[in-house]
Input
Amino acid sequence: MCEFCINTNSKTTVSNRYDPTRTTVLRNRAVAESNRRFRELVGKIKRLVVTEDVFGLKDIHTFVEPGERGYQFLSNAEKVEEFRKWLEEQIEKGIITVEDLGQSGPAYFKTWWGKYVTDSYKRGRTRAQSELEKSGYDISFTDLFVPLQIDALALVYVRAYSELKGITSQMSQLISRVLAQGLADGDGAKVLAKKLVSVINGAGVGDLGITDSLGRFIPAMRRAEIMVRTELIRAHHLAMINEFRNWGIDGVYIIAEWRSTNDDRVCPICASNNGKRFTLDEVEGMIPVHPQCRCIALPIVVKKGK
Output
């Protein structure tokens, strides 16, 4: 990924609002829900560590409700392990698999972001049909998914699920390390809570956190935001490519013309591909080029032999 892409802020100026995929609102809604879930986890950690004082770190004269300070008589190692178990439960319920829709099947179909992935895929299909109709195809709009499309959508689900599991796993490991160090250093409840939540939201992180290849800290909430935006573009792109394939007919074939945003946020890699043409096989795995890519592949109908 290029440094420009990872640093791009999700908020845009008026001159930057062109989005060739037309999924900006959908992606912003998904990111808002993702951020809300991470903020809820931040709130729970603060309540547990500061308000409930489960580690018994407050001054002994500080009043706390009966039943609080649940870990205070454990060793530091036991405190870290008990907190880790609690944290994993909160992550599973609030950030990973939180929707119990009474459906069977793999866990990745029971996630809160599934509706956004499906919506983005459907929008990609509709957009592809619209673009093909402009090229002279007699399009019959339908919401029915053929096996190729179902498989493609499932792959996006699996990828997004694995990515988010990876983000939260690293987050949990880092929080446990920060907790162990904080207890060893004798941090107070408020200082310790601040360090723990900084792993999630990056607030006052100092030297803590997960870094990329350039040594920069990327808090878990931000990493999840980048993942959500990227995977929705992936779903949209795959839907379009599969729809182009579905409508290929004898005597013609479809190639894809690359369209970038071509604004002041586009990265050099995407800018260099703008206007280039690729076969469907070539372009299928090219978009998204990098995290938060906003490119799209539009159809060019070519008669065979031309």
